[in-house]
Specification:
Elements lengths: L1 H10 L6 H15 L6 H4 L3 H8 L1 H4 L8 H4 L11 H4 L4 H10 L19 H14 L26 E12 L2 E14 L3 E15 L7 E7 L3 E11 L4 E10 L15 E11 L4 E12 L8 E10 L1 E2 L6 E13 L7 E11 L6 E10 L9 E9 L10
Antiparallel strand pairs: 1-2, 1-14, 2-3, 3-4, 3-5, 5-6, 6-7, 7-8, 8-9, 9-11, 10-11, 11-12, 12-13, 13-14
Bound molecules: heme C (HEC).
Amino acid sequence: MLVARRTVFRCRRPVRTVFVTVIALAVAAAPAALPAGTPEEASRTGHQIFLQTCVACHGADGKGQSRSRVGFEDPLPDFTDPDFSSREPHADWVGIALNGGPSKGFSENMPSFRGALTMEELDLVVGYIKSLGHDPAWPPGEFNLPRPLVTSKAYLEDEIVFSATVNEAAYGLSSFGGKIVYEQRFGTRNMWEVVLPFGWSERYTGFEPGPTEWGANLGDAAVAVKRAFYHNLKKGSILSGAAELILPTGDRASGLGKGTFIFEPFLAYGQLLPADFFLQAQAGMEIPFQTSKASNEAFLRLVLGRSINFKPWGRTWSPMVELLAAKELVSGEKVLFDVVPQIQVTVNKRQHIRFNIGVRMPVNETSGRNFAVIAYLLWDWFDGAFFDGW
Ligand code: HEC
């Protein structure tokens, strides 16, 4: 199992031995011995740099030397495995090789090559190790854009997301919503997910205005499959299609359920833009099985955002704004617009735990449509256990 493999891989406490330190120092020092900027150095290919600098631990084939050879317990990654290699953006690997494993919450047995290799050489050697596991079928990690609060991403995830919504009180009554989303990839370009929403709402015990009580209820659970149909890193575009089935598990009386099965097909698109800006879009339909309980609805969601690192390879801040448009396909119904300004931030060093908070604000038809504060905590479980990499 991937989960187990990756988690075990990341959980181990490094066992330091003199031997390791010697290897690390030797390999880190060797290239530094070359005078910087000589023609020989400039002409080294990524493969040559790998053989001279990384091979002692990562092995000539990039699959990692055996533990007895390296003298430490941490398992080494297999660079030839596209399931591992495709997920990591090139720039992140350059950062790890520049700043060393601990800079991203990885083992200290992965040394820093700052000063030993130039940026150009780091770029070449990472280009080489990336080529070992390159398989065009796997969408690359560069497309793993920050997850917006409402819009679905085009990239495929191995994630658990806990989200909470605090609604502005309506008619003097407050309500909170919660949601757990579990996502898991399968095959080269597919993912399935399960969504479990629940809510707490206040209601009058008798006539209003009067005493109120709080009740907890389940919302409409959902299951979905997604497939990335197309991606092109040169153009910076990725397109996925998904089919979701919403189940009538929610409590209709408390506004948490629609009371019917709903089929929701949608397309999700991601576009990388210059200067770390990005665009995401999702367009779809909600098609209820019983139109007496819910109407057909079409929606379009657009997201513009940017990822910012104040310190290179440090914490990533991603301010985004979502524009949501939805229309019930019933004559006389208007298109409802909402905007959701928000900011996502990486919480730990490994960046596989992220937090996002924003406000959903109705733009038109505001009567009866309230503000809501939405937040989530995301855990990319493929990258390690929750408490790894802090
Ligand atoms: C002294 C041993 C050693 C040397 C030399 C070494 N590495 Fe590593 N490297 C490791 C270890 C150990 C890990 C696993 C770290 C972990 O997962 O906690 C690792 C992991 C990595 C990773 C994977 C990070 C991830 O996303 O999981 C990359 C990329 C990497 N090394 C690149 C390089 C490059 C490039 C070189 C040569 C310039 C190099 N390494 C040289 C020990 C080494």
